[in-house]
Amino acid sequence: MTFLPAPPNSGIRFRRIDLEGKPEIDALVDNVSDTTRSTTLSKGNIKLHTVEHILATFHGFGIDNVIVELNANEPPITDGSAHEYCRMIKTSGTTLQPEDKDPLVVTAPISITSEESILSIFPCDRFKVSCTSSDDKGRFTQFYSSDITPESWERELSRARTFCFFDEIEFLIKNGLIKGGSLENAVIIRDDVVLTNEPLRYQEEFVRHKILDIIGDLSLVGRPIQGHVVAVRPSHRANCELARELDRQVKKRLARTQTFLPPRNGTLKKAAQASAPEIPAGGEVINIDQIMKILPHRYPFLMIDKVIKIAETAITCLKNVTLNEPYFQGHFPGHPIMPGVLQLEAMAQAGGLLILNKAENWGKIAYLISAENVKWRKPVQPGDVLIIDIELIKERGKTGKAKGRCKVGNDIVSEGVVMFMLTDA
Predict the structure, then answer these.
(1) What's the CA angle centered on 218, arms 216 and 219, to 5 degrees?
(2) Which of 151-165, 284-298, 332-346 is the most confident on average?
(3) Residues 216 and 303 reside in one and the same domain
(4) What per-residue confidence (pLDDT) applies to 255?
(5) Which of 81, 206, 354, 398 is most buried, with most CB under 10 Å away?
(6) Which residues are the active-site residues?
(7) In the predicted model, is pLDDT for residue 328 greater than 90?
(8) 347 assigned to some structural domain
């Protein structure tokens, strides 16, 4: 299995490279064909089983666009959790894209009852899941609740393994539902005994895995969710029924909105395409509106106008220096020069953008805590275009260190090494 980057607004797609033509299936609830013990997606005769753990990983990390290539009809089960998928993503790295992804905002309670499962979702300013799980005899009843963020997803939920009760095994074997299943990739409960090849990873590992499944199944609505899910003895069937209801609500709102919009003719489409920014090879443009969603700085202290290139460990930003900058009134009258400390601040903000661009750091703030080997070589004056290049040279926990330089044309005007620390907003 391979994770590949995908363009904005393309969503999550599974590609079967073992089949002729490499057919693809979109990870959308309309493509769910079976929810017996796992979630199966289908398109024609093409099927993909047990996709919920991978989808939960993408949703937990806030990843909207990706292609998953597979040479089989099911992803590798690994250890029965999403831990290995998290490792793949963290090794690869993630990046912000220049298109916003509107969340699905729950505005009124929705409730689903399916056999013994009860799922409800309520308005909330974030994505939260509260869940109670047990078997039909009330054994191993557990409760857990968590706000779903990249940090809580990885720390509190991603390592929870799949599990089953011993008296279910005969049915699962007869129906071909646990091929390859073993204590290497599942936990088995027999009466009051837990059978596992290692200690439980969480005190409430069973209900945490149920939340993992809920996140993966609800991600099939195709967008981030803003609401509080309350689940009692959830199942894949109930999860997907709730996802279908959420999808219906979105389509109804979209239909009502489009009723009052003018038709999008070819002229409007061409105008929109003409105004789209050109994406440089090997990088992406992040405009000022998107920058302000990442950085907390505002006028008159926002020193970045645009990101013109970004990679995993490097970023190039642009600052247009104009006579309208407020500091030119006093620095200096009749001989305006951009203060060197503000060039250093521009490097720090660029470094902050680079580190905050990672999914696990979204919503945090990067504070400048030190600067080393700072040199100012040439003055920067009104009319100059300041290019800020930053390279991340060290990252450990909540701190990072980056080497930066500012250029005007081909001339280096300042350089230095900045260190910053991440804190919650």
Answers:
(1) 65
(2) 332-346
(3) no
(4) 62
(5) 354
(6) 236, 331
(7) yes
(8) yes
